[in-house]
Amino acid sequence: IENNALASRNLGDCSTMSPEACGKAKELSQRILDKGLPSVEDMRDKLAACQDDSCRKGIWTEYRQASDATINTLKQMALNGELSREELAFINHELGKELAVSGYRANDKIGRSEQSSWLNGGGGPLSGFFNTELRQKELENAGLSKADAAQYVKEEHRNLMLLETATGIIGAKANRTSINIVGKGATLPTGYAPKGNSVIGPKGSVYGNTGKVDASGNTIYSNNGGYYTFENGVKTKVQSPNSDSQIRQNYEKGKEFEQSTYDKFKVDKVESAREITVKTDSNTKIRVDMIGKDKEGNIICVECKSSSTAPLTTNQKKGFPELETKGGTVVGKGKPGFEEGSKIPPTKVDIIRPTSKD
C-alpha cells in the first residue's frame, strides 16, 4: 500500500470539508499541479485506457513515481517557504482524507489504493517531515547554525521519546480512552478516538499531531487550520504553536504585502478580483493574484511575489508568456466580473515584489 500524494484537478463539492476549507483545498491543489505534477485524475484516466496487464503495470509504476515526486516537491516547497507549516499540514491531513473518500467512491484500483493508504496511515505521508527537516529549517531561519539546529532537533526527538517511555506509551497496553500524547489529562471527549499519533473526531475529521505542547504539557493538534488540545475530556482551541517561526512570519508578511498591493490596485478599477485561475490555449492553468478592468475596459493582471528572489512556478513560467500573446479563459468558479468562461484578451502579467520601503 502506497501513500497517495497526488493532487486533484477536480475536487468538486468536497464531502469532508466546509465550503471555505474546500476552496482552500482547491487552491492548494492547483499550487501543487502548477509544479508540473500529474493529478490523480490523470493517472486514473491512463489506467482506465490500458488494454493489457503490461500497460497497467507501467501506469501503476508511473503512479508510484508521481506520488514520490509530489511528496518530495511538497517538502521542498515547505523548506523554500512556498508553503507554511499550516498549509502543509492541511494538505497532509485534510486534503489527503478528501482524496481517500473520493477514491472510495471511484472504486477503481487507484481509488482503492488511496482509501487503503489513508485507513492504514491516517497521519499522512509527510507526518515525520514536520518534526525533522522542516523543524530544522525553521531553526536555521531563526538564526541557529545548521549543526546547532540539527542537534536541537535530535535532542527534541530524544526528549519526546523519553517522555513517551516515562508515561508508558511505548509498549504499553493503552485502553480505548487514552491517547498517544504527553499531557496532564490525556482523556478524549466522547466521540473522539486515538489513531496512531493523531485523533479522529466524531465525523471522521483528523486532528494531526504537531509535535508541539502547550505550557501544561498537552500535545497540540491541528485540524482544518485550527489548533487544539485535549485535557480531561475537553477539547480546547489554542493559538498556533508556530506563530513565532520564521517561515510563518514570512508567510504572513507576504500576505500583508499582497493585501496592501491589492488595496492600491483596486482603487481605480471598475472591476477587480483576487486569485483567479486562467487556462491558456495550451491548457496550462495559472493562478493570477489580481485581475482588474479599468474605465477603458483594459484588463490588468498582477502577480505578487513575497520577496525579491521568490521564483515563478513552472506553470507561471510557461503560462504568463502565453497569456500575454494569446490570452486565456477563466476556469473554476471565478469571481464577480470574471466568471467561469470569461475570455481574457492577450494581457501581460505585471510581477510586483516588495521594495526596501515595504
Automatic annotation (TrEMBL):
Chain segments carrying region Disordered: 311-358
Name assigned to this protein: Uncharacterized protein
